[in-house]
Specification:
Helix content: 25-40%
Oligomer: single chain
Number of strands: 0
Strand content: under 5%
Shape: globular
Bound molecules: iron/sulfur cluster, zinc ion
């Protein structure tokens, strides 16, 4: 499947992470759980609704689905989000806070299309993981 054509609305996490580029999502979606030594993987934040290692674990607003995206919150960007954002900027070169501002500006649907295009593999059009740079369709990295 070409990810540019079918962005999945469930992949825009409330914290601004694009779940379509997460190794847990990709391993599950691409049938690579065994190879990647993962038990369950993840269906994406909104569908799985788990307390992933992101800000959701510590935020009652997110756990109780009282907001759709963190930019709707009076405390945005809260200290937890800023800490996680700094970690992702340092380790993965992505900013959830910038993502959230972009979603606010252009809407989730268009942002998802942008993300799908950003993380597509130049070799096969498949999906690339932000954590290890590997395409989970053709294996290129
Ligand atoms: S583990 Fe977290 S970041 Fe990864 S797909 Fe699941 S909810 Fe999204
Ligand atoms: S910005 Fe608001 S909604 Fe988002 S994690 Fe922080 S407190 Fe929760
Ligand atoms: Zn590829």
């Amino acid at each position: 499947m070409n990810s540019q054509q079918n962005p999945n609305p469930n992949l825009a996490a409330p914290c601004g992470f694009y779940c379509g580029t997460c190794s847990h999502y990709l391993a599950r979606a691409k049938g690579k759980l065994l190879k990647k030594k993962l038990k369950h993987g993840c269906k994406g934040c909104r569908e799985q609704d788990k307390k992933c290692a992101g800000v959701k674990r510590d935020c009652v607003l997110l756990r109780k689905h009282q907001i759709t995206f963190c930019f709707e919150c009076d405390d945005f960007p809260c200290e937890n989000l800023k800490k996680l954002d700094a970690r992702h900027v340092r380790d993965d070169g992505i900013s959830m806070i910038s993502n959230l501002k972009r979603i606010q500006e252009i809407g989730a649907e268009q942002w998802l299309a942008e993300q799908a295009a950003l993380w597509h593999c130049a070799e096969c059009g498949g999906q690339v993981c932000v954590m290890n740079g590997e395409c989970y369709d053709c294996g290129m990295s």
